[in-house]
């Protein structure tokens, strides 16, 4: 669980549960209970198929119940909300799943539950894009309604502590029964009515009764954990009612449909209407363009001779300007050529002068050498 300083304070009274948004939209208690169980079954089964720990499914089911305490089943489809709650819970528990994996699992579960043909959900199809966009949109609705608070206190952690305190850990069957009862309690509204301590004590109480294990009653063991007997009795009653119900089936009460396996017909009709309107608009724009072209052609034909003369006059002026530009360019070229030729002549003269100076220097040097050698010969002859 991601650390948060906000305590687990999302709890409602029995009066608020009875006056839920679904009841205000005309959904009776039995239908609402069935849809809650159905959505929790989807979340639990999807977590098992994806091999995720129980904490992810538990968090997803709590988020599911909290959302439908503020929104109605008639306005948000139970299948898509269950998928978004499961996806959001995987992020809260730091085990994020890909959107494609969540959609694959829920798509296959719906096909199997409703006896639909198993079809591969292509990630490059428009259907997948629509489902993914709806998954993200529903997740945003859930976060907004819950105030971006995803902190959940599960009874499972307290359950192990209570069993160890009561020295019941060697009782393997009792521990397993209590754990299963804690999991099943998430299919009901107990998680939004009672704190996790009450639910954990209720699971221990029911498991001990089924396994015929006596618990200390003088003083009562539940008072050690700060729980009232009335809360435990209510947990036992709700769990007994849950086990008396048949397997939950999907009941279409949502006004917008929203099946994952099959696209909603109203959405298809809306898309067709949008496409048709776009095509009509495109046709209207084409016809308007053609009409404007015809009008321009008519106005061109209606041009008078004076306009033609003005155009000819302008053309002649342009030609004269072009001729003048050519003349200026020719003059510039000639001037550049003359300058280049003068520059070459100057360079040629400078080269000649440098060569002359170099020759004169060489001549002087040779004369000096001759004079030097002649003086040496004279000295030699004089001494010999």
From TrEMBL:
Q: Which GO terms describe its biological process?
A: cell division; regulation of transcription by RNA polymerase II
Q: Which InterPro entries match?
A: Cyclin-like_dom, Cyclin-like_sf, Cyclin/Ssn8, Cyclin_N
Show the Pfam families listed in the entry: Cyclin_N, CycT2-like_C
Start and end residues of each stretch annotated as Disordered: 283-384
Does the record bear Cell cycle in its keywords? Answer: yes
Which GO MF terms does the UniProt record name?
cyclin-dependent protein serine/threonine kinase regulator activity
Protein name per UniProt = Cyclin-L1-1
């Amino acid at each position: 669980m991601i650390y948060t300083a906000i305590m687990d304070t999302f709890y409602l009274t029995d009066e608020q549960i009875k006056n839920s948004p679904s009841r205000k939209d005309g959904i009776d208690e039995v239908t609402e209970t069935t849809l809650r169980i159905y959505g929790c079954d989807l979340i639990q089964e999807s977590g098992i198929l994806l091999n995720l720990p129980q904490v992810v499914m538990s968090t997803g089911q709590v988020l599911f119940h909290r959302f439908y305490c503020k929104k109605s089943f008639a306005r948000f489809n139970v299948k898509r909300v269950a998928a978004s709650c499961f996806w959001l819970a995987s992020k809260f528990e730091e085990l994020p799943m890909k959107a494609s994996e969540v959609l694959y699992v829920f798509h296959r579960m719906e096909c199997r539950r409703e006896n639909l043909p198993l079809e591969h959900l292509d990630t490059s199809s428009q259907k997948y894009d629509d489902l993914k966009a709806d998954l993200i949109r529903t997740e945003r609705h859930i976060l907004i309604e819950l105030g971006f608070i995803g902190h959940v206190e599960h009874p499972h952690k307290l359950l192990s502590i209570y069993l160890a305190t009561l020295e019941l850990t060697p009782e393997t069957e009792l521990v397993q029964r209590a754990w299963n009862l804690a999991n099943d309690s998430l299919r009901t509204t107990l998680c939004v009515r009672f704190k996790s301590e009450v639910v954990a004590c209720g699971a221990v109480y029911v498991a001990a009764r089924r396994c015929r294990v006596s618990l200390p009653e003088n003083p009562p063991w539940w008072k050690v954990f700060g729980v009232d007997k009335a809360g435990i009795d209510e947990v036992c009653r709700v769990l007994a009612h849950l086990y008396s119900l048949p397997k939950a089936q999907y009941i279409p009460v949502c006004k917008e449909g929203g099946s994952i396996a099959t696209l909603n017909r109203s959405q298809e009709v809306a898309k067709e209407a949008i496409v048709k309107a776009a095509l009509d608009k495109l046709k209207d724009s084409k016809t308007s363009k053609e009409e404007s072209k015809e009008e321009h052609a008519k106005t061109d034909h209606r041009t008078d001779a004076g306009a033609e003369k003005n155009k000819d006059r302008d053309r002649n002026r342009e030609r004269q300007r072009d001729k003048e530009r050519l003349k200026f360019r020719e003059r510039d070229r000639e001037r550049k050529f003359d300058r280049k030729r003068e520059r070459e002549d100057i360079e040629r003269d400078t080269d000649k002068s440098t060569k002359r100076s170099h020759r004169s220097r060489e001549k002087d040097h040779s004369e000096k050498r001759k004079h030097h050698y002649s003086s040496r010969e004279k000295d030699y002859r004089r001494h010999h």
